[in-house]
Structures are given as structure tokens and as C-alpha cells.
Known about the structure:
The protein is 52% helix and 14% strand. By secondary structure, it is α+β, with helices and mostly antiparallel strands.
Amino acid sequence: xxxxxxxxxxxxxxxxxxxxxxxxxxxxxxxxxxxxxxxxxxxxxxxxxxxxxxxxxxxxxxxxxxxxxxxxxxxxxxxxxxxxxxxxxxxxxxxxxxxxxxxxxxxxxxxxxxxxxxxxxxxxxxxxxxxxxxxxxxxxxxxxxxxxxxxxxxxxxxxxxxxxxxxxxxxxxxxxxxxxxxxxxxxxxxxxxxxxxxxxxxxxxxxxxxxxxxxxxxxxxxxxxxxxxxxxxxxxxxxxxxxxxxxxxxxxxxxxxxxxxxxxxxxxxxxxxxxxxxxxxxxxxxxxxxx
Length: 291
């Protein structure tokens, strides 16, 4: 979705192409009412020009959500200090060789330093509200943490043969069953780059491969050869070569990374729930064309 990614990292922020003022009433047409605020066609078109791959309906929903978040932040009297804004402004200025170059870049975007600072302040306000309202809702169950630790307790090394069709995979599996060498067949038949190494994929943990592949690979005993496994890449035959415990330092790093991933996913879900609650409490009317 258009706005979700922005909400998770940098609340949607657009310093975009400005549209010259016009007497055309169509430009100032109201496309959505959001409580006591409105979104005009001009606002929608401005954002749409910078996001040509996203439909206007999705963009409008994103703008509505941004309005609701800001309104809620104002209602809750969320405050952002000038120091916080100045810190971001200074970081932005450092990307340019001189102050004049920074101001020229803003001028080309049709914005001045004061307006930029105000937009940063607005976005920081929204971010602060989201942290306040959503962070406390994020919960990771002990069962999920234990599952991660179990999944990362070992890594395996396998060889595999990848082909395009199930028929070809069945024929190769029959050759293996008759005693033909797996490594030689991988070199001759596999379309995976690992084929030149006899299908050797090296060591990997459970989350490094696509689930269909990992699920079968980790169920094998050393020396076992799988049945044909279908994935979005094609048809695989897998042979277990070696298993070992993941080194302790690597284990801790992997656990931290996976826990962070779980928190991020949970945070995304909670944002969805919170936004839905905001919308249910709000007065929102969207023009028929964009429903």
C-alpha cells in the first residue's frame, strides 16, 4: 500500500512539484472531507505526479490517513521542539557544499527554509504520536521467540538439482535411485549456478531459503535425498550433506535480527489497527470518483 511504508520509517513527506495557481475550479475541487479539513484535487494531483505508479484512490487514502494523524496529534497537544527540527535541518544542509547551494535546491522545489522546517515539524509530530499510540501495543509472544531460537539452533549444507519441469526432475530422481552420482547429475542437469559445484549450496540457516525448500531440506537426515520439491524457481531434488550447530556469536546476531523483523511486522499490523480506529471515529467523505 502507498502510505504504509512511509508510516513505518519516515511519515509520508512530500516536497514535490508545485502546480501553478489557476482559476480553474476543477483544480480546487474537493475530493475528500476529513473532519473539519478537506483535500483538494490540486493536492491529490501534486502527490500523484510524484507517484505515477500508484493509483489516485490509494494516494487519496494515504492523504486522508495523514490528515487524521495530524488532527489527532493536534488534539493530543503533541509538541516537537525547535531543537529537534533544527537537528534535521542541519543534517539536510550538510548534504550540500554551501548554504547557498542548499537554498538554491529548495528554490528549485518551490519551497523556502521556513516552509521546509514547518513540514519537518509536522512529520515529527506525527511520528511522535504514532510512537505514543502504537509502540505500546506491539507484543511478541514467548512462543514465537522460542520458535526462532529453535529454528536457528543449527545450519545445514545440502546439494540440490534444479530443473524447469516436473517430468525432468522425476527422470533425474530415478537415475539417483539407480545409483548414479548426485554431484555429477547436478553438474550435468541443474540450471542453478550451484550446478557447476555439484549443486553445493554451502551452509545456510532455515530462513535463508524459500520456505518450501527449507521445510524439506531441514527434515532430511544426512545422506538422504528428497522427493521432487516444487518452488517458484522450478523443481528441486535435495541431498543432505552436513548439519552443524550455528556458532554462538552468529546465533545471537541472527536471533536479534529475526526478533527485530517480528517487531517490525507486529508494528505494521498495529498501525493498521490504529488507523482503522481513527477512521471509525472520524467524519470522512470521499468523492464518488475516488471511492
